[in-house]
Amino acid sequence: MTYSTIEYEKQGPIAYVTLNRPEKVNALSNDLQLEVRDALEDAGWGDGTIRVIVLRANGRAFSAGFDLSGGGGGGPSDAYTVRSRFMHGKGFSASAWWDVFWNNPKPIIAQIHGFCIAGGCATATFCDLRIASDDAMFGAPEIRTGGPYVPAVWPWMIGPSKARELLYTGNLIDAHEAHRLGLVNQVVPRDQLEEAVRTMALTIAKLPAPTVEYNKKLVNMAYEQMGIRQVLERSLELEAIALASPGSSPEITEYNRIRGEQGLNAALSWNAARFEAEDAWFRGARKRQ
Prior knowledge:
By secondary structure, the chain is an alpha/beta fold. It has 13 helices and nine strands. It has one domain: 2-enoyl-CoA Hydratase, Chain A, domain 1. The N and C termini lie far apart (50 Å).
């Protein structure tokens, strides 16, 4: 397969899958998802010499989430239509996107820098391990514009109380808070990120491959016994309900009006201004802790 939105290379026992839409802050388009899946399938099941997969990104950030630029006239529901087509169209679904990470026999390490938000954060949570630079930011800000958040794994990863806070507010957290919560495994300076990920990958690669695969299945099985698959499938149903009624609140209606008349950036700026005072308070509170 010829890739246009990712770079795919192998260095010894490590396969690197690099998101390569820096001009779009690595927004997750249909084409990018298909190409990532193809590379993960090749590294996971098609090449026995690969022991570890690294998912990383070019440009200033890991990913700003789903590509909501669309191709229509900027009508009120364009963003939701694009999201729905991305998650459920072209012969694949969100569960299939999740499965290629979850069921992959090789451990996948997310190498994260800059913004890792919305669908980008969801994608990183599907990886086995996450190593972040100290400039990374995490969260689901799409909630503030009416977009539901798919990865139902947060309650397991960071606990129900913090999951509720982030999913009810759309607040972002920095890399150190993400590490404290267990969302990421390590935080390192930006200039040490690549080496930290490579060191982890090479350590894993020295173990017998069947042992690593068995242990990954063991951890997965523990979560599956707690119902993680059922919860994910139910979350997709809830998302479909939410996407079917994007104009159900005055905030979403106004956001979509501005987006239709002035463009996506204007709508995002309007919405960000509504939360400016609260965001400043939360940032200050974290510094005081």
